[in-house]
Amino acid sequence: MWPSLIERERNAMLSVDPLRSLSPFPPGYRAAGVLLHVTSLPSPYGIGDVGPTALAWVDRLHEAGQSWWQALPLGPTGYGNSPYEPLSSFAGNGLLISPGWLIEDGLLQTSDCRGHSFSATAIDYDVVVPFKHRLLEVVWRNFSSGARPDLQPAFVQFCHNQAHWLDDYALFRALKVRYNNAYYLEWPAELVQRQPAALALARRDLARQIDQVRLAQSLLLRQGERLKAHARAGGVRLIGDLPLFRIPRLERRVGQPGAVPAGRKAQAARRRRCASRLL
Fold first, then answer.
1. CA distance 86 to 74
2. How many other CB atoms are there within 10 angstroms of residue 31's CB atom?
3. Which residue numbers in the chain have pLDDT < 70?
4. What is residue 238's predicted lDDT score, i.e. its pLDDT?
5. Angle CA(33)–CA(34)–CA(35) in degrees, nearest 5?
6. Of 32, 142, 191, 245, which one has the fewest beta carbons inside 10 Å?
7. pLDDT value, residue 134
8. In angstroms, rounded to a whole number, what is the distance separating the alpha carbons of residues 86 and 101?
9. CA triplet 86, 223, 123: central angle to 5 degrees?
10. How far apart are CA 196 and CA 176, in angstroms?
């Protein structure tokens, strides 16, 4: 009796909302999982990452009969380090790159990671961010000097496939460093207005820094794919979360021409519009 009643209820719901038929799950599917952000995983490097401890976490989920691991948004964070206020809708957070796997890949030495102490109970971003950024600079120097030439084709292909967002994002991050992380409306006017000549000059002058950002994104994808493959082999699926809005420090504003609102009133109006999307 009950199965047939449930089936009739399901058919009635589908008749009202045909989109329910697009569900990837079979009728009656039930599963359980755990919400844990990647940064909360234990790590000797001050912040959780997608490396060995993530694999171990997947194994624990599998042993506990869990089918899903949900993480918070994985985009690059800005002020306040909130995953719900990323600097990009496309890029990943370079802080999640595993130094352990970079050592395994021959792009870092164990000695590169020594000489730092981190809190065992909290993430100290004032310590972790410069530490990770320094490691990624070492990785870029090693890679550009010829370390792991077998990774070059995959890197070139990644840059080609993702150019529609990667080029502007990498330029944005390089400019952020050049201008000491200042709000982009405080950059030189020719950059704020996206004048083509100014952007071309910036791309030329910051070519090394831009390629370093590209490499970090490529390595994060490489490590993420390794984690994903391990999870699928263990019957654990990864599910993400989406930020409600991006903060208005957008990489897409750097590479695209158009008028830029000026003045505090315009900025406040833009922030109110962003906030209104939350309601």
1. 8
2. 10
3. 1-21, 244-279
4. 96
5. 135
6. 32
7. 97
8. 25
9. 50
10. 18
Angstrom distance (rounded) from CA 97 to CA 182: 25
pLDDT at 53: 97
Q: Which amino acid is at 203?
A: R
The residue written with tokens 């809708």 in the block is: 89
d(CA 169, CA 174): 9
Between CA 122 and CA 113 the distance in angstroms is: 19
Q: How far is CA 136 from CA 3, 141, 157, 180, in A?
A: 56, 9, 20, 18
CB 90 within 8 A of CB 221: no
The answer to whether 134 and 99 are in contact (CB under 8 A) is: no
Residue 126, amino acid: D
How far apart are the C-alpha atoms of 31 and 101, rounded to whole Å? 31
d(CA 186, CA 199): 16
Q: What is the pLDDT of residues 171-182, one digit of tens each?
A: 999 999 999 999
Interatomic CA distance for residues 57 and 113, integer angstroms: 23
Helix (H, G, I), strand (E, B) or coil at 115: coil
Instruction: Read off the tokens for 35.
Output: 């919400």
End-to-end CA distance of the chain: 43
Q: Do 104 and 181 touch, CB atoms closer than 8 A? A: no
Task: Find the helix or strand (DSSP H, E) in which 204 lies.
Answer: helix 196-205
The pLDDT score that the predictor gives to residue 251 is: 46
Going 259 to 263 to 267 to 268, the CA torsion angle's sign is negative
Q: Which residue, chain included where needed, has tokens 């890197």?
A: 155
Question: So what's the pLDDT on residue 13?
Answer: 52
pLDDT at 247: 59
Distance, CA of 183 to CA of 31 (rounded, Å): 44
Tens-place pLDDT, residues 71-110:
999 999 988 899 988 899 899 999 999 999 999 999 999 9
Q: Specify the pLDDT at position 128.
A: 97
Can you read off the two tokens belonging to residue 20? 């329910």
